[in-house]
Amino acid sequence: MGLELAPVSLAAIQRPVDRELEAVFSELKRIIASDLPNIAEVNRHLLRMRGKMFRPTLLLLAARSSGGIQPADITLAAVVELVHLATLIHDDSVDHSVLRRGQPTINALFSHQVAVIMGDYLYSRAIIELVELDDPEPLRVMARATNEMTVGEMRALMAYDVLDYSEEDYEALIRSKTASLMSAACEIGSLRAPVEQRERLRRYGLYLGMAFQITDDLLDYVGSQSVTGKPTGLDLKEHKMTLPLIAALPRMSSEERALVERLMADADPSAELIASVVAAVEARGGIAAARARAEELARQAEAELEGLPPSPYRDALRDCLIYAIERRS
């Protein structure tokens, strides 16, 4: 069976777990609550920035496809979202980003110091909740995932200004930085399932997460600020090596490669220079190659789902793959 790439909305995917996602959001508010005015003020901004809750959705759908949702799954889904939020806050601070989902980042609205401390606060609150559940298995899975994410952040720092950054380097980065948490969400949701099913969902989440990140990187080349919430070309402006550029570089002419080198040497490249590099990347097949790799990973994830018992929740997980590679934001 192959993926049919008709667009699918996240709202439709989330419909089978809508009620539980509302409970997850309430749990999130409970966990991060603080009497300290500074933390409470940042929390209000965080909750206004409520994201798409994609990772909690994966956990809940995995739980549904593995026998049902237990009360602890609501807390675990909130913990997964907390860790994701903490990572975004630290990412924005490291990158000096001023916008996230079209809204000011914590570091832009407050300070880099506040952003680092708030990221740490969210991580520590997540750990407290995991310990209080008194179940070592989700704690083990999340400990491994957060460690992998930290390694991914370090790999990301190595992906700036380096024109010999390979596809293997890039895939190691996205496997750690993005896919590890999606994989953990799917594995935690399936902890009560047979080992084979749990392993299938873990691998499904890994392939999905990699496809998701490649698509995210593609949006920097083909998206628009009104849709993505960040300026198109921002990765290039920040000298980040992502798959479209990595795949296109070996096929570029000496003149095109000189353009890329000029961009990487410029602390504040112009919109015209960025547009020229984007055009060269597209002309040399970088965008097509990245899209093909995302689709290949989605097919690998789909193959893992084939080993699960048929259910509407398995179908929703399959739709997550289409959403991941066909989304526009």
Based on the model shown, name its key terms.
Farnesyl Diphosphate Synthase, 329 residues, mainly alpha
Q: What is the helix fraction of residues, given as a range?
A: over 70%
Query: For this structure, what is the CATH homologous superfamily?
Result: Farnesyl Diphosphate Synthase
What's the multimeric state?
A: single chain
The residue ranges in which pLDDT falls below 50 over 5 or more consecutive positions are none
Strand content: under 5%
Q: Concise description?
A:
The protein is an all-alpha fold and 329 residues long.
Q: How would you portray this structure in words?
A:
The chain contains 17 helices and two strands. The chain has helices spanning 10-14, 18-32, 37-48, 54-65, 71-95, 106-109, 112-132, 136-157, 167-189, 195-222, 225-228, 234-237, 243-248, 254-265, 271-283, 286-305, 312-326, and strands at residues 99-100, 103-104. The protein has one domain (10-326): Farnesyl Diphosphate Synthase (Orthogonal Bundle), CATH 1.10.600.10. It is globular. A two-stranded antiparallel ribbon has the order 1-2. A hairpin with a 2-residue loop joins strand 1 and strand 2. Helix 5 (71-95) runs antiparallel to helix 9 (167-189) and helix 16 packs antiparallel against helix 17 (312-326). The model has no long low-confidence stretch (mean pLDDT 92). The chain is mainly alpha-helical and 329 residues long.
